[in-house]
Write a structure and sequence with these properties.
By secondary structure, the chain is mostly helical. The chain contains nine helices and no strands.
């Protein structure tokens, strides 16, 4: 087993992404300059441009990494649930876990989107994240047999967004629990409507 002295040192890319994650998430992507990123990462500025091409591409990579981490955390959480209804509501349980993390500072994608240029790599990264959230809700609604899964998914996505804003701006980690209660009511209403339609009423 390798000792600490011989263990592989994080690559320049890994160090740059770690520095970007910490600084961009806590302070904002526009506030933090390239010089602070490379200083914290302990790499040359040329390495950043060789690896990412520009600050904007680094921001995109930071957001994509955040997306991947959130997705993995949500997917792990959903393995605890058995029924489609429980799995759909479990998304809000997973969101609530994110809210209780010590460094929680709101949705990184929402913050970055507010500063992004239309059509920029940053906007593309935030769009990918939002598409994943909407698709997740749509797929779970379809799995549950909801008649109009896209409509329910849009409503749940609004609750998900609202919980994130409340958790950050109101400093209220319980926002996900409140959103979950509202999501359960929306789901149950949609399920009842399907039963009425199926019964021909």
């Amino acid at each position: 087993m390798p000792s600490k002295a011989t263990a592989a040192k994080p690559s320049a890319r890994e160090r740059l992404l770690a520095a970007a994650d910490e600084l961009f998430y806590s302070e904002g992507v526009q506030t933090v300059g390239i010089d602070r990123i490379v200083q914290k990462a302990g790499v040359a500025k040329a390495s950043l441009y060789n690896l990412f091409g520009s600050k904007e591409e680094l921001v995109q990579a930071y957001l994509d990494a955040r997306h991947a981490n959130t997705r993995a955390q949500v997917e792990r959480a959903l393995t605890r649930f058995r029924t489609p209804r429980e799995r759909l509501l479990g998304v809000f349980d997973a969101q609530g876990q994110l809210f209780t993390e010590p460094d929680f500072n709101g949705c990184a994608h929402m913050t970055a989107s507010a500063e992004a240029r239309p059509g920029s790599p940053v906007e593309c990264a935030t769009d990918r994240y939002r598409l994943w959230v909407r698709t997740l809700f749509t797929d779970l609604a379809q799995e549950a047999g909801i008649a109009n899964p896209e409509d329910l998914a849009r409503q749940l996505h609004l609750l998900y967004d609202g919980a994130g804003v409340s958790a950050r701006m109101d400093r209220d980690p319980s926002a996900a629990t409140t959103a979950r209660v509202a999501a359960a009511a929306l789901f149950d209403a949609a399920a009842r409507n399907k039963e009425l339609v199926d019964a021909g009423q």
